[in-house]
Amino acid sequence: MKIKFSYLLLFCTSLSITACSAQQNKTDDIMPQNEPKAVALHNDPYAKKIDSLLSIMTLEEKAGQMNQYNGFWEVTGPAPKDGDAALKYEHLRNGRVGSMLTVRGVDQVRAVQELVVEESRLGIPLIIGFDVIHGYKTLSPIPLAEAASWDMDAIKRSAEVGAAEAAASGINWTFAPMVDVSRDARWGRVMEGGGEDPYLGSKIAAARVKGFQGEDLSDPLTVAATAKHFAGYGFAEAGREYNKADIGNSTLYNIILPPFRAAEEAGVRTFMTGFNTLDEIPVTGNEFILRDILKGKWGFDGFVISDYASIEEMVTHGFVRDEKMATKQAIRAGVDMDMESYSYVNEIMALVEEGKLDEALVDDAVRRILRVKYELGLMDDPYKYLDKEREAEVVGNPAHHEAVLDMAKKSIVLLKNERNLLPLKKNGQKIALIGDLADDKNSPLGSWRIASDDNTAVSVLEGMQKYEGNELTFEQGAQLVVGEESFLTEVNFNTTDKSGFPAAVEAAKNADVVVMVLGEHGFQSGEGRSRTNLDLPGVQQELLEKVYEANKNVVLVLNNGRPLAIDWAAENIPAIVEAWQLGTETGNAVAQVLYGDYNPSGKLPMTFPRNIGQTPIYYNHQNTGRPEDPAPGEERVWWSHYMDVENTPLYPFGYGLSYTTFNYDNLKLNKDQYEMGEDVQVSVDLTNTGNYDGKEVVQLYIRDLYGSTVRPVRELKGFELVNLKKGEKRTINFTLTEDELGFYTNDGEYVVEPGEFEVFVGGNSVETLKTSFMLGEE
Ligand code: BGC
Q1: What fold is seen in the domain 409-601?
Q2: I need a surface site. Which of 117, 127, 201, 548 has the fewest CB within 10 A?
Q3: What pTM did the predictor assign?
């Protein structure tokens, strides 16, 4: 297998899932009997134009539209002479490239677009893709943090900001949102998703798609979005990146697919496959998932792109013999565009000419790609996204800083606040700020920030310095990272140098309150960054304990891209603030929360385990046949538990505190027996019982007590963000319809079954009020 070096050198491999209906015919010698059929695209306003264009395209030009290359040389410089870059350059000029990724900035994009438009025979413009994962230049919090806001308006706004900056830089298409559900914090890419829950994940998927795409794709401040990675990538076995996943049908249909479906329903224009296998078939060559479900059952009318080199990696997986076979299988499955495998551009012509691949499938792929180019307005004006003045005005616009600051504050989760240590008093206090991450301007930008400048986040130190009424001292305590900090390489942690400990301890002794900023570096989560440990890396735990010995008034501010196992801190440290990696405005957001200028309201989108051994741990688990100790105190072992740690998590899904307190009361249904198809009306009274105005995320869960497949002990089915003034009380209403009461069978059919249901409402997935009802007649 050839290896390509490029801006992002990315190697990929596998995962898995169960369930496959379509028989795959992989022989490359003959045209298969059961050749999949392209489904006609309905209501395509551009159909006529596309047909006439297709009719004059050569097969080579069609294959070109299906080929995407990564950015390669300084495109505004002289033409490259050697290697891949020279080849790509030639292919651009010859109409053999339909898209590029990671070329950015008006000048660079114009240079490649001109090559194609002015020099290739048909001049079909490129669509320019980019990973706008949590912003472009002005960075929002990492997506997992945004999910903690449960605030769909803010999440949508954040996507709008990223889209506007990217589009103003010449980009037409983002490879986001990642909507992979994951239950395993070891997997580094949990930072890029919406957490463990399919319901919350679906809402976020829709909000982000709408934010990126806006109302009108041809608006030069919007971009086409991508739902990725279709599907199952988030279930990498043991959390190890690119590993296989074993997923049963029920999990596939009820947990993995719903956020993708929500993105599709929100109008997402593209899907990306993944590096994983699904029932031992790489998803990039998987007819069941792409052809049968996505393009068949769901009627998706946009186009599908492979993941980076995932077509040629089907050879490495051991699924196909060579790239030719990989090409054939990917196209049969429904992958319309090849990201950087070179497979389509090399193999399609021969496959069709030799009668091994139906050209109708190629035409269908090209149609889909051209349609999105029309929708973006590129076919009418290839340069419409290329305006230097707009670029200067939009990228880094102050309004974007406000939006990401707002998002950052909403993403913060207060995990613990004993003795009302928070909010900090604004005057007359001696505050010791400790931890290398506290004055880090780079780590808060996270690991997906290719278009942003290093060291541009507001650090926590800078944010806190704005509160001048207190005496603030800073001590690093210990260096966190040794060596390079980069997107491409491993981050190494200081595990030996504790020379800064004494100064940190001294500062703590002299302070009224100590704020410690500890956790993971931004480059410690993300793609290729799995961990087998969920602790505070390096010598940070030791530093925390030493400082705590000197001063018990410690506020721990966590930075991390995944749930951490912080059992010692949860037991001992009086105040803990989950601050993730919050992007450009990190320090301002953290300081405003610490000082009470913003009352935190975030809730965890992923369960925090007590220790790594509990992973994967998630709230919507099944009951098992032996959920409880049958004889408490007698030390019997015959029940579902661990010998050394309890089953409950450290912090459950949906958990998060506020500076005020909320009381739930009077949970009611409008009936206790419902007909099939009838809506269930739920109401609950919520009162702000504390000393601050505040916001609560009211969460509704159900349990279907018995079903044709076993249902989870709780499933989130509704939530509402409620602002209440101090002392205020309000009744909150929810409606449960068939959309919330049913589930997917193992055959993928959605059913609502009669029987008994429980309803829970509260401020997290554990502490809830409960009631129940009967649905239908059994
Ligand atoms: C990732 C994708 C990403 C692509 C392009 C891959 O390695 O898995 O999510 O969009 O690279 O950068």
Answers
A1: Rossmann fold (3.40.50)
A2: 117
A3: 0.96
